[in-house]
Amino acid sequence: MQFSESFFPQRFGITPRDLEKYLAEALSQGGAYADLYFEYLSTSSIGIDESIVKSASQGVSLGVGVRVIAGERTGYAYSDDLSPEKIRKAARVAACIAAGPATVEKVSLSEVGRRNLYPVLTAPTDTTFAERVELVKRADHAARAFDSRIFQVQASYADNLRQVLVATSDGVLSWDRQPMTRLNVAALARENGGTPQRGHAGGGGRVDLGFFLNEKTPEHFAAEAAREAIVMLHAVDAPAGEMTVVLGPGWPGILLHEAVGHGLEADFNRKGVSAFSGRIGQQVASPLCTVVDDGTIANRRGSLNVDDEGHPTGRNVLIENGILRGYLQDKLSSRLTGATETGSGRRESYAHIPMPRMTNTFMLAGESDPQEIIRSVPKGLYCPDFGGGQVDITSGNFVFSAAESYLIEDGRVTRPVRNATLIGNGPEALKYVSMVGNDLKLDEGIGVCGKEGQSVPVGVGIPTIKIDRMTVGGTA
Amino acid sequence: MSGNGTCAGHYAGMAAGIVQQALAAGATDAECTIGEGDEFSANVRMREVETLKEAGSRGAGLRILRGRHTGSAYTSDLSDEGLRHMVRSAIELADITTEDPHAGLPDAADLGSIPGDLGMYCGDVEGLATEVKIDMARRAEDASLRADARIANSEGASFDTHVGRHAFANSRGFAGEYRASYCSLSTVPVARAGESMERDYWSTTARGFTGLESPEDVGRIAAGRAVRRLGARKVETQKVPVVFEPRTARTLLDNIFDAVHGGAVYRNESFLAGKLGERVASEKLTVIDDGTIPGLFGTSPFDDEGVPTRRTVVIENGVLRSYLLNTYTARKLGLRSTGNASRGLAGNAGVGNGNLYIERGGARPEQLITGIRDGFYVTELIGFGVNIVTGDYSRGAVGLWIRNGELAFPVSEVTIAGTLQGMLMNLEAVGGDLEFRGSMAAPTLVVAEMTVGGL
User: Which residues are CB-contacts of A26 (< 8 A; sequence separation ≥ 6)?
Assistant: First the structure.
């Protein structure tokens, strides 16, 4: 597809000449670099609760963000009106971060090579609501049918289609069409009037509706949510203190996101405020651990053809056989440190300044049989599902909360335990990884990562792993 | 339109016009929210300007009913065509939702607005020169860097302002609009000693510029907090009294809010569901939600359904007195709205807090620690390990160990765990140090016993 056939030229009549003029305006006060990020976002969501479809919403937001970099300084302005005078006004506001005569002589844009990691012909946002509402109704029905102890079900379906256009003063002209969809199910179970327990499941990605009809059906997610709630009905108090922890495959990869991922974002390291600052080449994990951040996996929630600065995403090795290899770079950090861009510049919307962020972060498979890993543990905790996590990148301390976990006794998974938080220290925790399974799994597509007030979709993944020492925050 | 002193401004008129369009297009009822705001942010790091950000934006959200079917839509495009598209979108969606007997707007008798000046807008924010804003951030960071030789680095300081208008109108005759302003200053110093590196922050927020604390105080307090964390260590796993300083005590209000949220209550997914009138906490605990206190951050003349905000006693001397409700959750529970409807532009109204706070007790914070032989004074909590359905509580914690009545040494990489039920019942003391630094506020709290998970 040529630029002229893409969304913004077609819909708003934007030409490369217009973009060059806006960029020149942005650089008129002496800025060294400028970029424009146009965004047109359509969203829809449907919610069911008590078997009643109670909410359905759709909407549109659009705007353009203008950024100017002068040395270490960034000026940013945006407009939710795409008229030329409003864009030029935003450009002039952002330009004021610099003070002096223009130094960049002329901007000439050229189209960058294109690929499509999510060739979704019909975006879910463009399908009929009658089709989409069936997904939440089916999920509700299936969760209730799973077990008579399920007494409440909530399901929500959401999709969006983001059209973006990036133009930069170093000549990049890039555009992308980014579909996204997600189905979530939460179920509550209760037995004989006792304490209710909750389970949830969800998934999706940059896919069309066929994904929910053929691959991961509403019934799949509903059964998973209901099963988790039922399991928790008989949970005992979680243990407290240091012990061996085995993480199941898939979503428990959130460990990597918190323990190492954030700490390897280049902005923190450039400023020297991360526990990983200055540690490239050092041993930060056991030799069994290789961790990558890969934005190029087809149809994944965390994938992007180009990052939000117009740079193609890549497969970046963060830790190789336990040795720290690299950071996740955005435009600003790579300009300031001379590092190669990694396609990790992301932002929540046109109203936000890009930062280095993760895409899909996972550990490569090892050689151990998952069953053998469990059998090797005399006493410990097995965690196949988690809620959210958080990290203090400066001290390196991170937490993540088990949503479903079990005691391991004499090499066997036994009783389920109540929700508990696990805590560790980033540069230390992975040194205690003593076995890595051969069962790498990516999560089902539910991750949202928050940083400095900006949320972006991400993915994680991990094989079954054994961590010899980790603190579990239970009460028993 | 509606009385009660609500000013009808430009956006209120626009919202009322959109409601009329929706009725003409086939809605039987409609409500419209319009928000407009200007934001500014200056960041300074290591005494140099790092970012300046400035912009304005607007948006509208519409919810319509056709009988008892709901549909909603929003747009950032307030052109005539953008608004027509939004109306069509909302009407279209009413066809796919299910008839819900409890759906609908508030009764006309419940609508209204608190008269008088609620101190939500201060004119001194809008005219602030960029240089003044940068200088505030620079002074706060500089004070933190000068405060202690161990403050060798910084994540910077930021000064942020927001000035906006919020309008709401519905087809039961309500139209209202108010202005609000906000400014805040914060700084995040990084302390270092040997291998130990720690950061902390301090901030000040106010409706007006003159209400802010001095940048020098913000920097000095932030530095002191970061430095006292240096050399933190893990402790043995044990059960001890836990003292929450006001900043961490405030997070218990997040948990209490989630548990008295009308939606969680009617779905029976709260440990406080079905407990109205029952003893749920120590008699030392009184929790109040009050959206009417002038000048505070959770204050507004009406909620996001056009119901006047009010003062609601949530927990009184340990007895659960009220949930926090919007019109829908109130109808589900056979109760009346407490004026706590809250919504963004998209979707149905949810439930939000006004100024939610724990009433102050008598003791000075130092007195609360004096009698504790071994205990944990918690200054930061991380993670999401709170289950409102069961009350299970387990979070990562940072703080200072209490030994023989004094703060002895810094502690990190530990968890604190228990149940919210147990924590509320075993609340042993409430401090007198209540300060509103946001829309939730709590004084120092002492919980008799929790499990600290460490070595």
Answer: A34, A36, A66, A67, A68, A91, A92, A94, A95, A169
What is the ipTM score, two decimals? 0.94
- Residue A258 to residue B396: CA distance in whole angstroms: 13
Contact yes or no for A56 and B229 at CB 8 A: no
Chain B residues closer than 8 Å to A83 by CB = none
pTM: 0.95
Smallest Cβ–Cβ distance between A133 and the set B89, B96, B390 belongs to: B96
B269 touches chain A (CB under 8 A): yes
Distance of alpha carbon B103 from alpha carbon B100, whole angstroms: 5
- Domains of chain B (ranges plus CATH)? 10-225 (3.30.2290.10), 232-455 (no CATH)
Strands (E), A206-337: 240-247, 291-294, 315-320, 323-324
CB contact under 8 A, B268 and A73: no
**Interface probe with A: pick from B18, B51, B160, B251, most Cβ of A within 10 Å:** B51
Amino acid identity of residue B203, one-letter, is S
Q: What is the pLDDT along chain A (476 residues), one digit of tens a residue?
A: 789 999 999 999 999 999 999 999 999 999 999 999 999 999 999 999 999 999 999 999 999 999 999 999 999 999 999 999 999 999 999 999 988 888 887 888 988 778 899 998 888 888 999 999 999 999 999 999 999 999 999 999 999 999 999 999 999 999 999 999 999 999 999 999 899 999 999 999 999 999 999 999 999 999 999 999 999 999 999 999 999 999 999 999 999 999 999 999 999 999 999 999 999 999 999 999 999 999 999 999 999 999 999 999 999 999 999 999 999 999 999 999 999 999 999 999 999 999 999 999 999 999 999 999 999 999 999 999 999 899 999 999 999 999 999 999 999 999 999 988 999 999 999 999 999 999 999 999 999 999 999 999 999 999 999 999 999 999 98
Question: Between A and B, how many CB-CB pairs are < 8 A?
Answer: 260
Helix (H, G, I), strand (E, B) or coil at A396: coil
Report the gap between the CA of B227 and the closest CA in chain A (Å): 13
- SS3 letters across B294-314: CCCCCCCCECCCCCECCEEEE
Nearest residue to B70 via CA among B22, B115, B110, B38: B22
- Which residues of chain A are within 8 Å of residue B38 when distances are taken between CB atoms? none
Q: How far is B385 from chain A (nearest CA, A)?
A: 5
**Which residues in chain B are closer than 8 Å to A474, comparing Cβ atoms?**
394, 417, 451, 453
User: Chain B residue with minimal CA distance to A154?
Assistant: B267
Structural domains in chain A plus CATH codes: 3-232 (3.30.2290.10), 240-473 (no CATH)
Residue B47 sits at the chain A interface (C-beta within 8 Å): no
